[in-house]
Amino acid sequence: MQDDAYLKCIDPNCGLEYPITNTNVQCEKGHLLDVKYKNKPSTDLKEIFYKRRNPQGNIFNESGVWRFRELLNFCQIDTENIEECSKYLVSLDGAEGRLSKPYRMSKAAELIGMSNDNLWLQPEGYNPSGSFKDNGMATAVTHAKMIGAKKIVCASTGNTSAAAGMFAANEGINCDVYIPAGQIAPGKLSQAYQYGSQILEVDGNFDDALKQSLDDAQNHGGYTVNSINPFRIEGQKTIPIRALEYLDWEAPDWIVYPGGALGNTSSCGKALMELYDWGWIKKIPRIAVINSEGASTLSDLYNGKFESEELRWNKGKPNTELISRYYDHLDKEGLRPKTKATAIQIGRPANILKGLRALEFTNGVVTTVTDSEMLDGMSVVGLNGFDCEMASGASLLESKN
Ligand SMILES: [Zn+2]
Question: Long-range CB contacts (< 8 A, 24+ apart) of 116-119?
Fold first, then answer.
């Protein structure tokens, strides 16, 4: 092993560092952590990644996550050594991210009045468990395996539990899933059962389920695989990395994401910060985050709709008191996140600070869409022959504005 990867607190005024084998998802002062790399990956790897599109029987080249393993080599292995890859890297036979790349969808472009040449959509539903979560779960379970975890734990509205259960089953690790009673996408939950996960119902919403799962991890030796786990973010970076690679590393003007717990916003931001710092991209695309109107925490705070202050990362000094007061206000008024798009029905985005950091780096924007707009987006993607989850319909509808 080389001494390259470590964990570092995201708060620049704290900056506590931990060895890569650390399993706490926060620093001891309660801030989120980043996986950091000391060495800059050489841009010569661009050609190696391209060549790996012809995987030649290597499942780690076939995988849309591990094809880029040098950019997320927190296991610090010899990435060309197939035995080392097999020993460390968790993969469902190279299926995670394998079919994911940007596509043109003419009917989708037409709906929002954009030229078909200017719009790409990247379906992430063709992952083995059926959602984008497989990207980050492959890496989180890799870390869990690296430190010898016996049980992984998550809260889920559906997608996370399917991905976690699948990789855990394949690795022979137990998986506990905390779900908000009655608020789950039924198909996704049945997958978790199928993979042999233990399902625990929690009275309340996703935010309550997450709290219980974190208590379980802390007190009963579980390993948390929700997106506050910094290793989830590493795998999820490969979503924008794949897009950029397909665009020959020419960054688009905008990258648009639905916003829930803000794991995607955070991971896209981290990928862009790293690629820019490493000299892999010359332009920084702007991130647009789309909340549901019924679960609009980030939009409310970012756009100054609460106490008239526009919440910003502010170079590492965000007004966290404002966030606390907003959450108190939600509790006091009995306001619960409410949208049919359960994947983004989240009132307290666990990655809000990393999300804000990403928005600041990319000069991003945040806005909202209605449930019916999301359904329109979802339907038109279907008319192009692609499957689309309701929350993802948000990205399309907002691209027109
Ligand atoms: Zn800290």
Answer: 119/399
Distance between Cα 53 and ligand 1 center (Å)? 39
Nearest to 245 by CA among 68, 61, 56: 68
Question: Tell me: the pLDDT tens digits for 312-326?
Answer: 999 999 999 999 999
- SS3 state at 323: helix
CA distances from 93 to 98, 138, 243, 328, 379 (A): 10, 11, 22, 46, 31
**Who's near 94: CB < 8 A, 6+ residues apart?**
55, 58, 59, 60, 61, 62, 63, 66
pLDDT digits (tens, 9 = 90+) for 242-285: 999 999 999 999 999 999 999 999 999 999 999 999 999 999 99
Mark the residues whose beta carbon lies below 5 A from ion ligand 1: 9, 11, 14, 16, 27, 29, 31
